[in-house]
């Protein structure tokens, strides 16, 4: 926006002085409202009048009255002053978490036991805030954090990026997700060889869980080529609950619904862990709401304050 250089002699202090005199009805009352002496207020108004080359108040009357030129200027700048006051109020409210919004990304398995209880407490403490929760796989969430669409995310590790900071929160072991009436649920010991490949329900290959299974080297190739593939953990668990098969998943993912119809079965010959990370922007200052929620996470998980990369 181009600003006329001649307007630079009139600033916000001048405008507030003009509007204060007009609203208070006199220089003395306006000076008291502004917390300055009348002579200082008279000098401020005189500076404006010198800048425009015309009187804005008629001082021959007692009290001084606004001239037609001054009234026209007040009418034109009045909406600007109101807009500025509203903007400053919103700024203060947002900074103080009296208003604003929080955008969080999360892998589905991070929501139920980790994020939901903390978010409930956070929203209770800040009732004027609104919140949007976006669930997806780690890479897409990380991209949204880097691009400013999300304040933060809690998910598996995403690819390293100078635009992101990733701090570990907690980890859980992989095992087998089974329908509650599946024969393996009652077995004393279950190994990978006991899992029928044709019953396996897999997850989107781009998901963090699938990538960990592919990279582990411990999972037989037959178990990496599922007959059924689900896009999300929620869809995968729904299929398992319906009895369509079983799945290789981290324990927190299996207990996402806390549904007794889905059971987590440890695998004695699979030593594979999934770590959940707090994903934050590294190059962009956090929003006030984002900063406050990260602080709540740090209080809940003390090691976050020391960890990082």
UniProtKB/TrEMBL annotation:
Record-linked SUPFAM superfamilies: Periplasmic binding protein-like II (SSF53850), Winged helix' DNA-binding domain (SSF46785)
Pfam families in the cross-refs: HTH_1, LysR_substrate
Entry's Gene Ontology cellular component terms: protein-DNA complex
GO molecular function: DNA binding; DNA-binding transcription factor activity
Keywords: DNA-binding, Transcription, Transcription regulation
Matches recorded under CDD domains: PBP2_LTTR_substrate (cd05466)
Ranges for domain HTH lysR-type: 10-67
Family per record: Belongs to the LysR transcriptional regulatory family.
Protein name from the UniProt record: LysR family transcriptional regulator
The species this protein was found in: Cereibacter changlensis JA139
């Amino acid at each position: 926006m181009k600003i006329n250089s001649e307007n630079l002699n009139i600033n916000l202090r001048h405008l507030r002085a003009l509007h204060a005199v007009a609203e208070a009805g006199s220089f003395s009352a306006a000076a008291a409202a502004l917390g300055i002496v009348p002579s200082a207020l008279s000098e401020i108004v005189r500076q404006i009048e010198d800048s425009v080359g015309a009187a804005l108040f008629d001082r021959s009357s007692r009290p001084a009255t606004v001239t037609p030129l001054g009234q026209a200027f007040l009418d034109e700048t009045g909406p600007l002053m109101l807009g500025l006051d509203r903007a400053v109020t919103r700024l203060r409210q947002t900074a103080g978490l009296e208003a604003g919004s929080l955008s969080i990304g999360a892998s589905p398995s991070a929501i139920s036991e980790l994020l939901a209880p903390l978010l409930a407490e956070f929203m209770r403490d800040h009732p004027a805030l609104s919140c949007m929760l976006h669930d997806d796989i780690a890479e897409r969430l990380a991209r949204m954090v880097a691009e400013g669409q999300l304040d933060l995310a809690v998910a598996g590790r995403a690819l390293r990026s100078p635009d992101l900071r990733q701090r570990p929160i907690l980890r859980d072991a992989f095992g087998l997700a089974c329908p509650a009436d599946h024969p393996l649920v009652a077995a004393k010991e279950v190994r990978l060889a006991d899992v029928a490949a044709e019953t396996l329900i897999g997850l989107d290959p781009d998901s963090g869980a699938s990538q960990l299974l592919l990279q582990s080297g411990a999972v037989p190739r037959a178990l990496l080529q599922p007959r059924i593939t689900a896009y999300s953990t929620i869809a995968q668990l729904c299929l398992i609950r319906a009895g369509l098969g079983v799945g290789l998943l981290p324990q927190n993912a299996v207990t996402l619904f806390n549904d007794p119809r889905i059971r987590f079965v440890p695998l004695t010959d699979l030593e594979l862990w999934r770590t959940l990370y707090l994903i934050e922007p590294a190059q962009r200052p956090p929003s006030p709401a984002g900063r406050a929620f990260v602080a709540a996470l740090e209080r809940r998980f003390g090691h976050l304050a020391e960890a990082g990369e």
